[in-house]
Amino acid sequence: xxxxxxKTGGLLLPTIERRCTSPPSVIVIGGGISGVAAARAxxxxxxxxxxxxxxxxxxxxxxxxxxxxxxxxxxxxxxxGVCSENSLAPLIGYLGLRLYRTSNDNSVLYDHDLESYAxxxxxxxxxxxxxxDKVGETFERILEETVKVRDEQEHDMPLLQAISIVFxxxxxxxxxxxxxxxxxxxxxRLEAWFAADADEISLKNxxxxxxxxxxxxxxxxxxxxxxxxxxxxxxxxxxQRVTKIARQYNGVKVTTEDGTNYFAxxxxxxxxxxxxxxxxxxxxxxxxxxxxxxxxxLGVGIENKxxxxxxxxxxxxxxxxxxxxxxxxxxxxxxNLHKATGNPVLVYMAAGRFAQxxxxxxxxxxVDLVVSHLKKMLPDATEPTQYLVSRWGSDPNSLGxxxxxxxxxxxxxxxxxxxxxxxxxxxxxxxxxxHSGSVHGAYxxxxxxxxxxxxxxxxxxxxxxxxxxxxxEEVAGIVAPLQICRT
Length: 487
Ligand SMILES: Cc1cc2nc3c(=O)[nH]c(=O)nc-3n(C[C@H](O)[C@H](O)[C@H](O)COP(=O)(O)OP(=O)(O)OC[C@H]3O[C@@H](n4cnc5c(N)ncnc54)[C@H](O)[C@@H]3O)c2cc1C
What we know:
Largest sheet: 6 strands, mixed
Number of strands: 23
Strand order of the largest sheet: 7-17-18-19-16-20
Binding site for substrate: 348
Family: Belongs to the flavin monoamine oxidase family.
Pfam family, one: Amino_oxidase
Keywords: Oxidoreductase
Number of helices: 15
Helix content: 25-40%
Bound molecules: flavin-adenine dinucleotide
Cofactor: FAD
């Protein structure tokens, strides 16, 4: 690994003569993956870049906590699509970060394809594997039938409603007893992908995402090193919550909560969709209706994690421990980090309305709740020695976990959300048409916004080009394949 390369974000390409005295300037609002990616790209292009970040840390919804003595990702933890086509692969490969592949399957919607799981009922009886496999096949069939319902309907509807129609048409697909409880668990897992309940998920869109190949890989060392590498050497101002963005005849004026004004030629806005929806930032003049309606029409889902550190491992050596129940809400699941990382940590994942309810509890109450589930599944379960509880829905810096497709979503909403308004550019996971809700989608959207901004500013200023530093892809692509393990 080349430390100088890291410092500069890559290698210096042959210098092109500067043709202007002061380089174009850009303010990037938000220091998550999309913000640091955009800032890195523009800085590599010799632009003057300032990142304004409201928190006292960078990374945003990539948040690796080290208080357990090992990396714990309280936001994103998987690279979805462990393949060279993934925009983050060159950087992850270059940094030598290990991935633990939890599933080779590219499917994201149901987990009977998980190769390593144990499901239990509320009395602690383990569900036989053939029951899980059989119900998984039925669930697949039900989902296929919902596609037929979609083809017959003119209007969008919630996925849950479509499932009810499937049951009316094909009563034999409706399950009972333990089989039904496993089916509810499959729905619970599906809801986790969208961070929304099945009665909120769009029938038209639930399967329209283009999932990359290569399955899903957990970042064994945590996601933060990716952020750190991108951010190195950038001018990042922490604790700077932007409250106003004014477009002026000669650029933008950005004002933060403490009254500081920043001026630049252009601005890239990467704050989460939830923050834009809450109107925490005032725009002057107001955003045009086509943009504000795009912000309103996109949905934001909630997923929260409860990470628990134990003094000993009392659970089976599988990747996922699940509890089945009579409704998706009564089901739950724990990711076993011990299998992937060797650390005695379980992470409970809550999504949709249940994730919202978790935020109303104190940390201790939330932990007690999930430990009570755990004790029903595994009577030997002990109390955790340390715990962490995320609150992505109520955190004013995120106001949601990631975007999701609401019922009746207009077809052009993502294009409108990501389109610039004069010298204001928009990036972030919600701006990614193909990979919204993901780290790599957010990363690519940051790069795309930076490139559009770079080209327009160079044209506006009559500058042919500036000194250019090579991108990660050029430096790393050939030398560093992804390191994939499954212990
Ligand atoms: C629990 C959870 C699990 C997830 N799991 C995965 C996963 O396994 N794999 C995956 O690919 N993706 C996952 N995601 C999604 C992924 O984390 C996000 O899509 C991605 O990190 C978003 O990056 P971003 O740059 O768009 O936004 P953010 O990371 O949210 O960055 C926006 C930044 O703007 C800052 N900000 C907010 N308001 C202001 C303001 N007024 N002024 C200045 N700054 C402001 C924020 O503090 C933040 O740093 C998960 C997300 C969550 C919450």
